[in-house]
Design a protein that fits this description.
Length: 312
């Protein structure tokens, strides 16, 4: 394992009340000391905790495939009957549901009925605008900066996906839901809209990210682990098919030249096809390995030629 040159992705658990980049700072002082190129794939808000994938060296160039392309799973701990200006516990309570029959109405609900109601409404295509207190930008400035100045910026809704929804616990006013969603989905907004659909208000008290794609979070302290314990297998994270090249062809690929192969795996690869649109002219994606079975490139098939998309 050559930390100074090889591409690696690490699975860490970001604790509550620090930023995602604070987590990187800890790693740069300890486990990943001396690494110059490092970044994370998908920000977690300071109040949120859980899985944060960290890439170093050329692995940072996989951001579009990991952050933008993989589903994410969260456990949302919410409170019904109240609304905060930030949508979470860090904000101010700005509205209370003062309905006289509020508790009586919600006492008649149970986990099964709530899950049935929310599933029918939210599973599948889901149009959502960024929260006013989000890091989404407008004219180069983050929305929460406008919001703190009392300026309301309305952005257009974008299509997201809610793949699954499971109610884990319910004891009014507490409601805990596990969501599996497409990248870029604001869970505090989704939870608030779930509360609205049930006939009340809601905000997040706690948020835990448990999974990105096929990778589950570990539970180790941020600064108490070995690299082997947190290293993520690239082929597990992005399960593309692979091709192996001899030294001559590998050199051509590394130097940016497309190559023609007599035999390129042509099995159906829905995973590959789902990601290839990030580079529009690419038809399929492949991990390209050398004679020692080491990944040296991420290649794309285009017009019967394999061309380098990212060289490691």
């Amino acid at each position: 394992m050559n930390l100074t040159t090889d591409p690696f992705i690490f699975n860490i658990y970001k604790p509550r009340d620090i930023t995602s980049y604070d987590a990187i700072r800890v790693l740069k002082r300890t486990t990943l000391k001396g690494i110059k190129k490092i970044g994370h794939f998908g920000t977690l808000d300071p109040f949120a905790e859980g899985l944060l994938l960290i890439g170093i060296n050329s692995a940072t160039r996989l951001n579009n495939y990991i952050h933008d392309g993989l589903s994410k799973t969260y456990i949302a701990h919410g409170i019904l009957g109240k609304e905060s200006n930030t949508g979470d516990v860090t904000g101010e309570i700005i509205k209370l549901d003062e309905s006289k029959d509020l508790e009586e109405k919600f006492s008649k609900m149970d986990i099964a009925s709530i899950e049935k109601e929310l599933t029918a409404k939210f599973i599948g295509d889901y149009w959502q605008a960024p929260h006013a207190f989000s890091a989404a930008k407008f004219e180069g400035k983050k929305l929460y900066e406008y919001a703190r100045q009392g300026i309301e910026i309305k952005k257009e809704k974008k299509l997201k996906k809610v793949y699954s929804l499971k109610v884990l616990e319910y004891n009014f006013p507490e409601l805990i839901i596990e969501f599996k969603v497409s990248s870029g989905t604001y869970i505090r907004t989704l939870f608030s809209e779930c509360a609205n659909h049930l006939g009340s208000l809601g905000y997040l008290d706690k948020l835990i990210r448990t999974q990105i794609g096929s990778v589950f979070s570990n539970t180790m302290d941020l600064d108490n682990h070995s690299l082997s314990e947190i290293n993520v297998d690239l082929e597990q994270l992005l399960p593309f098919q692979s091709v192996s090249l001899d030294e001559s062809m590998m050199n051509k690929m590394i130097h940016g030249n497309p190559i023609t192969l007599n035999e390129i795996p042509d099995e159906e690869s829905p995973v590959s096809e789902r990601f290839c649109g990030i580079v529009p002219e690419i038809e399929k994606m492949y991990w390209v390995k050398d004679e020692n079975a080491q990944i040296r490139s991420l290649g794309g098939l285009s017009n019967d030629q394999l061309r380098p998309v990212i060289n490691f």
